[in-house]
Write a structure and sequence with these properties.
- The structure holds 2 protein chains of 2 kinds.
- Chain A is of the alpha/beta class.
- Helices cover about 25% and strands about 20% of the residues of chain A.
- Chain B is about 40% helix and about 10% strand.
- Chain B is built from 8 helices and 5 strands.
- In chain B, helix 3 (about 45-60) runs antiparallel to helix 4.
- Chain B is globular.
- Classes of the chains: A alpha/beta, B alpha/beta.
- Chains A and B meet through strand 7 of A and helix 5 of B.
């Protein structure tokens, strides 16, 4: 642990820390553009210059200089001040003075730092250089004249997103950041370069010219596009959510968010259900709440089936369960019917942050890149950090890193190829990830558990057995008992008189042909088309909700805006309906509901990782057949909100279906 | 760069060069260069391979050669590199031509020493033969580029034409060289001054007189 002195303050810094980190630990602010905590060090912006003794008598770039014993660092001398002013003046030589029309304005590092560390005037009298715009895809807008060549986006693409498509071409004054031949970035994480860009060169295309950061209300929330539970911040103005940005949470999403998380928010204002509907003569007719409730009452027998969709919060599921009874619940709407007697056997036990310490990883029928992009980046990190080897059973797909494909035959799970069994035997922290899609096949769950047992994937201080879900509501639903023996088919076979569908748009409604179907949800999608009564609910941005992510982490998001029109928060709908049905639910506020829920399932009352223990159900482990495909065919259109989003439709058309869009003539 | 030629359109290029592959003699050389680096580090040979590819393209088109995108991609594939990384290298170095050039690529040095010694005359000589900066002559014979220092300041002004340097030029010798090349002759390479061989002091030594004929130990005379 080297001891260094920063501006007269002696501090001890960890081995391997840089001078910049040492200064930060001493509470000094060091301006920087190219340096980023989660990316490799480039050292090309020169903004972080400080004076270091012993060393050459000139300012040194602190981001790339290791802190060593006895260093005397000064950040407040005239030399440092002049050096910063000089660098800033150079950076601004070619930077246009277009802050008033720049979307980065108000949250721009260059703007802030030139105010704090700049000279206030330029001595440059020549013409500024101009750079042509580059095409980077449907989500990233470029104004490359503003670029200061920090190369954060290049490093992000290479190191985190795993695509080597972004680079710097040319040199010197002609250096330009671009994607390869200006093709769209083929990444599920491309939106993150917008956050990384310290200037306005890369900005969000759907959000262009929409709002200024200071006029937006910021609400902490939890993302529901996949089961990762990305911590997000919803920026809203009036009744509309303008953008979703990631919050930093090192256990879940670090500081990244997938493109779906960021850009599906425009779907929140399209195709919304804003008043109750009743089906009359095969046609949905707008009605009042009272009429809708009366229609439901006519089919009420004291019990009902409940099918929960992929994006429902725990409060909604709990309220529905309290009303409808606990024996006819199902959340796995696509028909999965795996055993849920032990929650630990269907959980991502290694944890998202933990998987980056694994040294051998076996993927079973999981297209991680589309199912959980942020878990995929962790595996990429594991490969870089511990040299992890990744094996996969399933159809070959591009996961952005080197994978040893073992074929799509499931028998590889029971008769392991020697390559894999040798690797598992010698591994210290081996892990298996069973994709939600692989659980479709009989015996896969049991075979994976048997494999975990045989190769001791669960050992002291390490649990390497993981099931990867991709619905935000899944783990919460399982904790609340939304799993019927035999799955949704068995539930439908009971022929319930009345069935509630909580935002369930992927379910097969044909199964419930004889039931009276009540759809409680927010978008006019598949579920609403089949419903007999529609009760308009709130989307994730419009209610405070508890969500459990794929590793069993209980997280809470807050309400950013109000639901449109007559729509209400879902739990309140069930509370009001319970009055009409004569089975009054015992809570009148969200807090009371949460207290009840915590009584029923204590883990849901505490934010943080739920402890499921570790127990293995004994399941049949005979597997045959092949993994035919992965469940997510189109990453950008997996749920009702995405399907209503113009941005996501465009992404899907362009990046998945390779449609070419002609640029409008300007 | 501002005065660089336009890259031909994508469809045309890919239909012409899409099936590019190293000819046997180039392949042998490429493998030799790759062999110079440890296993797993074959990407270090990227510059040599791009040069080889450019030469092969030059041979096939009877020009000095250039690097169409499919050729860059072929080299990337040959080395197992992402396309972007190779493309970055190809765009960084002026040695690689990203647009077609003529039979002779005339690179006139215009940096300070050459400029003081008369590189403006050299450019004028080129211009009077119909060469324009960044353009190829209509007969496909010459492409003119102004470049920065090529390290021949002692025999300035100079031009580099394909792999050869022509030094100590003036308007008339430059005109003669261009004329010779156009007629298919090989002008004298190197310095154009009569009696000068390389970059030795012209007109006899001005210092170290004692070393003109034989070795001399100056150390005692400091």
């Amino acid at each position: 642990m080297p001891k260094v002195t920063v501006d007269g303050l002696e501090i001890e810094v960890p081995q391997g820390a840089t001078v910049l980190q040492a200064c930060e630990m001493a509470g000094k602010e060091i301006p920087r553009f190219c340096y980023h905590e989660r990316l490799s060090i480039a050292g090309n912006c020169r903004m972080c210059l400080v004076e270091v003794a012993p060393g050459p008598p000139k300012p040194q770039a602190s981001c790339a200089l290791p802190a060593t014993e006895g260093q005397i660092i000064r950040t407040d001398t005239l030399m440092v001040k002049k050096a910063r002013e000089g660098v800033m003046e150079f950076l601004l030589i070619n930077h246009p003075l277009d802050c008033p029309i720049c979307d980065q304005g108000g949250e721009c590092d260059l703007q802030d730092q030139s105010v704090a560390f700049g000279r206030g005037a330029s001595r440059f009298e020549e013409n500024k250089r101009a750079v042509t715009e580059k095409y980077m895809g449907p989500l990233v807008k470029t104004v490359m004249t503003r670029c200061i060549q920090c190369t954060r986006c290049v490093r992000f693409a290479q190191e985190v997103a795993g695509i080597e498509e972004v680079g710097a071409i040319g040199r010197g004054e002609n250096l330009q950041i671009t994607t390869y031949l200006e093709h769209a970035m083929q990444s599920e994480l491309s939106g993150n370069v917008v956050d990384l860009c310290p200037v306005g060169a890369l900005t969000s295309k759907p959000y262009a010219f929409e709002a200024r950061p200071w006029e937006l209300k910021k609400t902490p929330s939890i993302d529901v596009m996949d089961a990762v539970g990305t911590n997000i911040r919803l920026d809203s103005r009036g009744r509309a959510v303008f953008r979703a940005l990631p919050r930093i949470n090192d256990d879940v999403n670090e500081e990244w968010a997938s493109d779906k998380t960021r850009h599906a928010v425009d779907g929140l204002t399209h195709r919304r259900l804003d008043k109750p509907y009743i089906r009359k003569d095969a046609k949905l007719v707008a009605a009042s709440w009272a009429e809708a409730f009366d229609a439901i009452k006519a089919h009420w027998t004291g019990e009902a089936a409940v099918v929960a969709g992929d994006q429902v919060d725990c409060e909604t599921m709990f309220a529905a369960r309290e009303l409808a009874g606990a024996s006819t619940l199902e959340g796995r709407q696509t028909g999965l019917a795996y055993d849920t007697s032990s929650l630990s056997a269907v959980n991502f036990n290694t944890t998202i942050a933990g998987i980056e310490n694994a040294d051998v990883i076996l993927l079973v029928g999981s297209d991680l890149r589309r199912e959980a992009p942020l878990v995929n980046t962790r595996i990429q990190k594991a490969m870089r950090k511990c040299g992890a080897k990744v094996f996969a059973i399933g159809p070959v797909t591009n996961l952005t890193y080197q994978v040893e494909w073992l074929g799509d035959d499931l028998s590889a799970l029971t008769k392991l190829p020697k390559l894999l069994s040798d690797a598992l035997k010698s591994a210290e922290r081996p892990a298996i990830i069973v994709g939600g899609g692989a659980l479709r096949y009989e015996g896969v769950h049991g075979a994976a558990l048997a494999l975990a047992n045989k190769y001791k994937l669960v050992r002291y201080g390490w649990n390497g057995f993981n099931v990867l879900h991709f619905a935000a509501a899944r783990m919460g639903g399982l904790m609340l008992g939304f799993a019927h023996d035999g799955g949704i088919k068995a539930l439908a076979a009971k022929k319930p008189k009345l069935a509630f569908f909580l935002g369930a748009d992927e379910a097969d409604y044909g199964l419930f042909a004889e039931s009276f179907k009540v759809y409680v949800g927010h978008h006019g999608d598949n579920g609403a088309h089949h419903a007999d009564v529609i009760l308009p609910g709130a989307a994730y941005s419009e209610k405070s909700g508890t969500y459990v992510n794929l590793e069993g982490r209980v997280q809470r998001g807050e309400r950013a805006v109000f639901p449109p029109g007559d729509a209400r928060e879902d739990w309140a709908i069930f509370r009001a309906l319970s009055d009409v049905l004569g089975k009054r639910l015992p809570f009148d506020s969200l807090d009371a509901l949460r207290a009840e829920m915590a009584k029923a399932v204590p883990a849901l009352g505490v934010e943080g990782l739920a402890d499921y223990g570790w127990s293995e159900p004994s399941l049949p482990s005979d597997v045959t057949g092949k993994i035919v495909d992965y469940p997510i065919k189109d990453f950008y259109l997996t749920n009702a909100i995405c399907r209503a989003s113009e941005t996501m439709q465009k992404c899907s058309a362009e990046l998945v279906h390779c449609t070419q869009f002609l640029e409008a003539a300007e | 760069m501002a005065d660089s030629a336009a890259i031909p359109n994508e469809a045309e290029t890919s239909s012409k060069w899409g099936s590019f592959a190293f000819a046997p003699e180039y392949k042998a050389k490429a493998d030799m260069y790759i062999g110079r680096y440890p296993a797993g580090r074959q990407q270090s040979a990227v510059m040599a391979l791009l040069d080889l590819a450019q030469r092969q393209v030059g041979e096939e088109t009877q020009t000095q050669g250039w690097l169409p995108v499919p050729v860059i991609e072929y080299v990337s594939g040959y080395l197992g590199m992402p396309y972007m990384r190779t493309y970055e290298v190809a765009t960084f170095y002026t040695m690689y031509n990203l647009a077609p050039v003529g039979r002779y690529h005339v690179q006139v040095c215009g940096t300070t020493p050459c400029m003081l010694r008369g590189s403006d005359d050299i450019i004028a000589a080129c211009k009077s033969r119909g060469l324009l900066k960044g353009a190829t002559t209509p007969d496909g014979m010459f492409t003119l580029t102004e470049v920065e220092c090529m390290g021949n300041c002692a025999s300035a002004p100079m031009v580099q034409i394909n792999d050869d340097n022509y030094e100590d030029l003036d308007h008339s010798s430059m005109t003669a060289i261009l004329k010779g090349l156009a007629e298919g002759k090989q002008p004298k390479v190197g310095t154009q001054l009569p009696g000068r061989h390389t970059v030795e002091p012209y007109g006899g030594a001005t210092t170290l007189h004692a070393m003109v004929d034989k070795n001399h130990d100056y150390r005692g005379e400091y």
